[in-house]
Amino acid sequence: MKYLIFGTGEYYSRYKKWFEKEEIAALIDNAPEKQGTCQDEIQILSPEQGVQLDYDRIMILSVYVKEMKRQLVELGVPLEKIYHYYDLNRLICRSEEQKCKRYKKPVQYYSKNENMKGAVLLLSHDLALGGPAIALFNMAKVLKKQGHSIVFASTLDGPLRVSLLKEEIPVIIDVNLQIETMNDAGWIVDFSLLVCNTLNFYVFLSERDTKIPVVWWLHDSAFFYEGVDREVMRKISLQNLRVVSVGPVPECAIRDFMPNLDCGQLLYGVENMAVHGRKKRHSKTIRFITVGFLEYRKGQDVLVQAVKLLPEKIRECCEFYLVGQEKSLFGEKIQQESRDVREIVITGSVDREKINELLKDADVFICPSRQDPMPTAAAEAMMHSIPCIVSDTAGTAAYIEDEKNGLVFHSEDAGQLATKIEWCVQDKDKIEHMGKEAHKLYASYFSMEVFEKQLLELFKFE
Fold first, then answer.
1. CA dihedral 132, 138, 143, 145 (to 10 degrees)
2. Rounded distance, CA 390 to CA 407, Å?
């Protein structure tokens, strides 16, 4: 079997382990600067060059599956030859010999000698410091406080493991969870309840032991369903399964696949890191901040366009901080487009402590996302009494009353976003009051106290 691998970024790094080097005819990528080079001693070609090779299947290792699939079809690739990382379960050989060759045993990190039998298992797709993993970490702390025995498992290791072990929460890293079903993962049988975090576990849930209750906590917008196999989704048994979503956006997305699903809502909790009595910034400028990976879905290009549309007198009263990973083609595009805009500062990736410091020094938070189920950074901003300007496709917009506790603009409408920014400058005195109202919104929906009450109700399911 010969594969073309489409994508050489983060998702290639996550899933390349499932392919032997000799199985890969070539890597293909749209980035001109990568074409003609090598990665892992494998040549990188343009898609146009790659499809001329002799291959059996093309594997898309990227979240942008819809666009990439369309591109391949336009290049003459038959749909039946195009696969996505969600398809790995049915592509990887399942023989015992192959399992011994490819599958690594789970790696266990124990903070102390704990017995897993009867514990609650929380499953995360990674241990990075993104919103869903942090939300599950906060769930782990609340459940531990309530007296539950907790084990945290992930498909990939990452910096969150350090925080988990500080809380004396055992951690298991099992790369097999990227492609296994629950019935394949024999070590799971001793747990009394499972919490599967995000859509990433839909293949895992397609074949499961229905005697073990499962909570499926969805954080995903419709964007992340573009590689989902509807037939596999239909195999998920609803017996002993409770599905909850982080607000209305993930609920709408799952209902397109499972219209009759009984889906509740469980918003995440954000720890209160704000200092009591927020101090005013003594500055002539208003500091706007947005936090998130620089990627198309997050819409930082819409924000850059909006800044360029501002009248010069308004713009010189502003600072715009773009915080997040910028090492991508889209990140390079944003840096290029904002090069001559002195009011824009791109910080790159920073740790959670630094994000909190930057939020404390900000006046207004902007979420320009095209799709964003319930951005954690917006809740963190409101926790700091910072009002938010959010696009109407972000889940947070459902809780904001325009010009009372925040501002809402039409997604991708740079002109309307510019108008909202201008409103903040011209009505600067209203920002502080709007920030206090935003904090009330945080306290009512996103505080750890509210989250704990919701969890107590949810875990009656057990």
1. 170
2. 6
For the CA atoms of 124, 127, 133, 137, the dihedral, rounded to the nearest 10 degrees, stands at 90
Query: How high is the mean pLDDT in each 10-residue block of the chain (462 residues)?
Result: 93 92 95 93 96 95 92 95 91 61 69 70 93 94 92 94 93 91 89 95 94 95 90 93 94 92 93 66 83 92 97 94 88 92 93 88 96 92 96 95 95 97 91 94 95 87 52
First to last CA, the chain: 45
Q: How far is CA 286 from the centre of its chain?
A: 29
Pick from 365, 319, 316: nearest CA to 345: 319
- 10 Å CB burial of residue 193 (0-12, 13-18, 19+) is buried
3-state secondary structure of 260: coil
Asked if 65 contacts 226 with a C-beta cutoff of 8 angstroms, the reply is yes
In angstroms, the CA 151 to CA 421 distance is 45
Q: Please give the Cα distance from 274 to 271 (Å, whole number).
A: 9
Q: How many angstroms separate the CA atoms of 263 and 12, rounded? A: 32
CA pair distance 300, 325, nearest whole angstrom? 12
DSSP code of residue 67: H
The pTM for the full model equals 0.89
